[in-house]
């Protein structure tokens, strides 16, 4: 089910998300003014005017709400296997909810992080050097190997390399987009396969924008506040003085989150932004450990180890000996454990129900955490 059963207003959240002139601030106004979102959705013109809506915005709102079929929009989400999360839902990311203007809805495909997991953003230039490539791969891998979830924007360059480095460790990573997240709309097109890998590796692709939203240039600065808002800290790897990555750093500072920057050669244009951040007080970071130390996450690996999956039966114990974050086919598990296929199928089904394993399709399984 792609729509939460806990919130009867969900389809109106979806409706408001389809109205471009209604952002988080206007949405809060409507929530305060009306007992239910259904009433807000059907608000008369004079009330909208009293709330400070311009005449153009009022006209747009009234026109679009007449055109939008909310039931069809819900069906479209289900068809694309997209989940809609409202700010009222219990599993809405806790850190993101703390920022000044959190999205009132999130659309996502894959698995949301929990409040017990640690997230760090890594962003940088689309035009990177060999130095930036080496550093992004090294730091992202080190963080992932220590149980940290890497958050980025799926952009070409540093962002994509940070995601890929986490995936190379069979670790979760989160991509935040500035457009709709249906498969045919993933931007950039070059990274659609990367998005699929992120979802298959227990991570997620998310956006505050509904199905059909093009990758408008104006969406990306606002997208960056979500990247930093999800994260305990943000690392900038290579950024020119006017790089979009610096917008993410600014949001992180406004959100009272830690900002890290990788120092670079003073002759490099792609290091001007990061070197300037360090001059302004950002923490220099040359390895993942610098970030773990600064955020007091040295115990992250130990904490995650305490969440280790334990067996409830002899059959589960046999399977757990051979299951990891690396996908294993059920036939291979049979060969390794010498268990009959019927027992493997039954045990894996129970383990999936308990949240211990995850079926990736094609009869391949991984540990769920």
Secondary-structure map:
Blueprint: H1 10-17, H2 24-33, H3 37-41, H4 45-50, H5 55-67, H6 70-79, E1 83-86, H7 94-97, E2 105-110, E3 118-124, H8 130-145, E4 148-152, H9 158-168, E5 173-176, H10 192-200, E6 204-207, H11 219-229, E7 233-237, H12 244-254, E8 258-261, H13 272-279, E9 283-284, H14 288-294, H15 300-306, H16 314-320, E10 328-329, H17 330-337, H18 341-353, E11 357-361, E12 364-367
Parallel strand pairs: 3-4, 3-7, 4-5, 5-6, 7-8, 8-9
Antiparallel strand pairs: 1-2, 2-6, 10-12, 11-12
Helix pairs in contact: 1-6, 8-9, 8-14, 11-12
CATH topology of the domain at 109-301: Rossmann fold
- Based on the coordinates given, report the CATH architecture of the domain at 109-301: 3-Layer(aba) Sandwich
Low-confidence stretches: 1-7
Which assembly state applies to the chains in this document? single chain
Proportion of residues in extended strands: 5-15%
